[in-house]
Amino acid sequence: MLSFDPEKIALPAGHYINGQHQAGEGTALQVNRPSDGLPAGQLFEADAQKVDEAVSIADRSVRESGWASCPPRQRGAVLRRWADLIANDTQLAQLESLGSTRPISDVVNHEIPFTAEAIRFYAECADKYSGDVLPTRDASLGMLVPEPYGVIGAITPWNFPLSMASWKCGPALAAGNAVVLKPSELTPFSTVRMAELAIQAGLPAGVLNIVQGGGAVTGSALVAHPLVRKVSFTGSTATGARIMSDAAFNGMKPVTLELGGKSPQLVFDDAGDIEEVAGRILRGFTANGGQACVAGTRLIVQRGIADALIAKLIELCQCFRPGVTWDENSRYAPMIDARQAAKVASVVSSARQQGAEVLVGGERFADTGEGYFWQPTLLSVVSNDNPAVQEEIFGPVLTVQIFDDEAEGLALASHATYGLCAGVHTKNLDRALRAMRGIAAGTVWINRYGRSGDFIIPTGGFHGSGIGKDLGRQAFEACQRYKSVLIDF
Q: The pTM is what?
């Protein structure tokens, strides 16, 4: 029985600094439940002074505890224990489901295992990847020696609170750093529980701290702090640009930015079984209510199968039913809040005014009270300048464009701003590889859409979709700085 009563869930209060809860003071922020719009709890925003406290404690703790200098295998053992605690913690799953857009069945069956496995992956990186001995002249020894940065500032989004925290904390802690993490002010609670479990697993107090608040106050103070030597952020392209600028003006610190996307799903007429392809496309733009940077929200389909594929998608879109996230039978995610629902409505309205035709959906579900559930929506679009094609909507809205030949399809698949992901659906290997080469995106999925559990494959975008990589060996290595050494003998 996974269903639970949201009124009976005790919420962790405030910040989590030096292994202790701090209720906080100052500006109060109201946190609402996306499923019904009712208050979930309240938190107090960390100002620059509170952020300084958390960062200073992290800097001292990572040195005095020996976390940075202990044998890497010991760090890996702590992370493996942490992953085990995450995998078996009922409270963590309920906190994630109550306060986010994630139905409890999805959290238990997917989000929690994915989060635990990400941390296990980086536990194994701790003693597997190191520096290099470099070829030099006979009387010298050249080395490339990695070392942790010290304190890494991490800022995570509201759409996948737990897994995004594991992407930031896993590689940073495995490499010997401390982390000060700011979760989204819309989904603050589950990350605090995650940090509690890290301390239970043996992570020294103060090596992982959580500060609560919005980006303008708490996030800015974290990025600008002189003891934060690197910043890792997942969120919007506009916010990523501000973080990049702030990091440059406050110490020239490196950044990893996983930002927005407007990803194409390019379907050729030799893609195979229509029902199977439609299922892939549907999951690509409706998962988490379309609130994913990697959502495949632009269907570009070859004319020969367009009618059949669109008809199947319309049929599948009509099968969704909204439900509160704490009900184990719910499968469809709400919008995170009223502002996000209004944004989806605004872009759909603008798209229609500029010639888009609504094929299915196009409005909020009726009879959901104050819950923010938007119907899966298909928009037939002719002009590539339509706002529904150009703007990241962050909702379950799929634009549909039809092409005749490969060159036209590839041209439509390109985007002036974003280059995060792309899906290519074809049984022709040559065509698939040409498309892979021709689409400017950091990840290309062929005959699938979405990540797997292969954490060795990094993710990250081109252009306005970001800089650097999360996941993979690359994320671990990005949490270290490299010192060149040359010894004469």
A: 0.96
